[in-house]
């Protein structure tokens, strides 16, 4: 039960940063897709370190940062593209952003648990000395 609860806390912290920056940038006139991309990236460090250190307790897992960057790039496309499509479909920008954030959070928990920060038994060469 620790992982889902910790994921929720880190996720809410990251989401608050993401959403707050989105509202500020959009409020200053930035188009929703650009504001979404910038706000999404603003939560990068909090989300990575929080999930790595507190949720999945992966420490400096080999390759985790690279896998996380790939996931973030996919998420960035989903976030910005999703906001764009939903706004084009008539949804308010704030509602489009919240919708994409919830969808991406669910996808991320599974992707981080299985791929980005897998249990040591599932990581090739885990526990072996580096060469």
In words, what does this structure look like?
With 131 residues, the chain is mostly helical. Helices cover 75% and strands 0% of the residues. It is built from five helices and no strands. Helix 1 (2-27) runs antiparallel to helix 3 and helix 4 (64-88) packs antiparallel against helix 5. The longest helix is centred in the N-terminal third of the chain and has 26 residues, at 2-27. The chain is elongated, with a radius of gyration of 16 Å. The relative contact order is 0.14.
Number of strands: 0
Shape: elongated
Overall mean confidence score, pLDDT: 87
User: Could you say which structural class the secondary elements and strand pairing correspond to?
Assistant: mainly alpha
Note the gap between the termini: 36 Å
**What is the chain-wise order of helices and strands?**
HHHHH
Query: What is the overall number of helices?
Result: 5
Q: What are the segments in which pLDDT stays under 50 over at least 5 consecutive residues?
A: 127-131
Q: Cα-atom Rg, whole angstroms?
A: 16 Å
Name the beta content range: under 5%
Helix content estimate: over 70%
Q: Main sheet? A: none
Keywords:
0% strand; 5 helices; 131 residues; mainly alpha
Blueprint of the fold:
Elements: H1 2-27, H2 32-42, H3 44-55, H4 64-88, H5 93-116
Helix pairs in contact: 1-2, 1-3, 1-5, 2-4, 4-5
What would a concise description of this structure say?
By secondary structure, the protein is mostly helical.
